[in-house]
Amino acid sequence: MSDLTPGFVAGVLTNRPPAVTGSPLAGVVVDSRQARPGDLFVAFVGEHADGHAFVADAFARGARLALVERPVEGEWLTVDARRPVDEETWHRATAAPRLCLLVGNTLTALQSLAKAWRARFRVRVVGVTGSIGKTTTKELIHSVLSQRYRTLKSAGNQNNEIGLPLTLLNLRPEHQRVVLEMGMYAGGEICLLCEVARPQVGVVTNVGPVHLERLGTMEAIVAAKQELVEALPPAPDGVAILNKDDALVMGMAAHTQARVFTYGLDSQADLWADNVKSMGLSGIRLSLHHGQQALSLRVPLLGLHSVHTVLRAAAVGLAEGLSWEEIVAGLQTQGDQLRLIVTRGPHGALILDDTYNSSPDSAVAALNLLADLEGRRIAVLGDMLELGAVEEAGHRLVGRRALDVAHVLVAVGPRGRLIGEEALAAGMPAERVLWAAEAEAAIPLLHDLIQANDVILVKGSRGARLDRIVEALSKTI
């Protein structure tokens, strides 16, 4: 099986037999600034930026192929993939050093390409959805499966109709397992993601009112999350891993043909835990039970709620045939979620120092971690620099996620203010949003605000100097 090539892309999008020979594409990007020699650039028309304006930039950086919805003038070949392509045009297209493929919709084209590419691989795919805990669960499942299998995972928070196809296009012959986070904003979106990814294992973390404003009812939220288990193949190939402690999740068992494997604190679950004890910053201790087997272990995850994350990852390991030795070894990783520095602040509050750098994706991922921790959650979010045309949209995206996660939001800096404005516009009460023109101005606000048992996430680009906030707060314990 060959790597992803321009001929394969052109074949899929022009309904011709894909050509998988020839030099492979280096990767697929949707931001021209990330383009490398040999990449495929996908031009999206967004609310605040039009990727077609950056096609020339992508080619200047070495991109070999671009997907566009309208012709873009330049020194490259453009082929209209919306119409039949004759032999001469086909050969010119597959040999062109720089090629624009004109498609009806670049998002649909990206998804069709990912679907066709995934179909070439005999690989088992694990999909993870739920209201909270998806990212940490995905990371830990990846760690467990990697003890035996070459495993691909979603990067950061790439869990939507763009990010999931981008992940799948990184599939290579050596991969044996894939772990994909699946998010949604409306009904039907997870169904679409499943059509592209074809998961055999589906993990549902929980169901809560995170999307209630958009979907209107809890029943609609359940139906949207349930699309994952509905899409699974029948047993024994398909496995639905469901939270025994969540009645709404357990209701999904009647809507899947897959084998149902339950986890939770309920001793009637297939995999259950007891003797759970917090070890503070050292993680948690717990005992796991499966059939007649029982073992005690410590894992380096924060918060008693992390027991469910452990159970999900262990359940996937069992479903995929791993030994307990492999599962326990995989559970010991701290993974991406704990790369940040954890320290203490005033009144013993927990500070998550993630001030090394920031982007919309990494800020949302950090908020996802904050959402998984117990206590009053305070998000201190500052400027994200060097975002170019997506600066405003990127900050507003983070503001919408902060609404769902933070009890209090402290927006720092002129760009950080956009985060706060978006959270307010999306429904966050004004008394829960504080403003600071710069890092130093946020320090006295936080000194007055912080209480015992608070968890404070501090995140921004290095240029915003939010590290000064962490330094000042950590001196006051």
Describe the protein's topology.
Layout: H1 6-13, E1 28-29, E2 40-42, H2 55-60, E3 65-68, E4 77-80, H3 87-95, E5 99-102, H4 106-118, E6 124-129, H5 134-145, E7 151-153, H6 163-168, E8 177-181, H7 189-197, E9 201-204, H8 212-215, H9 218-230, E10 239-243, H10 247-250, E11 259-264, E12 271-278, E13 284-290, E14 293-299, H11 306-319, H12 324-331, E15 341-344, E16 350-354, H13 360-371, E17 376-381, H14 391-405, E18 408-412, H15 416-425, E19 433-436, H16 439-449, E20 454-459, H17 467-474
Parallel strand pairs: 1-2, 2-3, 3-5, 4-5, 6-8, 6-9, 7-8, 9-10, 10-11, 11-12, 16-20, 17-18, 17-20, 18-19
Antiparallel strand pairs: 12-13, 13-14, 15-16
Helix pairs in contact: 5-11, 5-12, 7-9, 11-12, 13-14, 14-15, 16-17
What does this structure look like?
The strands form 3 sheets. Strands 7-8-6-9-10-11-12-13-14 form a 9-stranded mixed beta sheet, with helices on both faces. The chain has a 6-stranded mixed beta sheet with strand order 15-16-20-17-18-19, with helices on both faces. It has 17 helices and 20 strands. The termini are far apart. Helix 13 packs parallel to helix 14. Helices cover 34% and strands 21% of the residues. By secondary structure, it is of the alpha/beta class. The chain has helices at residues 6-13, 55-60, 87-95, 106-118, 134-145, 163-168, 189-197, 212-215, 218-230, 247-250, 306-319, 324-331, 360-371, 391-405, 416-425, 439-449, 467-474, and strands at residues 28-29, 40-42, 65-68, 77-80, 99-102, 124-129, 151-153, 177-181, 201-204, 239-243, 259-264, 271-278, 284-290, 293-299, 341-344, 350-354, 376-381, 408-412, 433-436, 454-459. The mean pLDDT is 91.
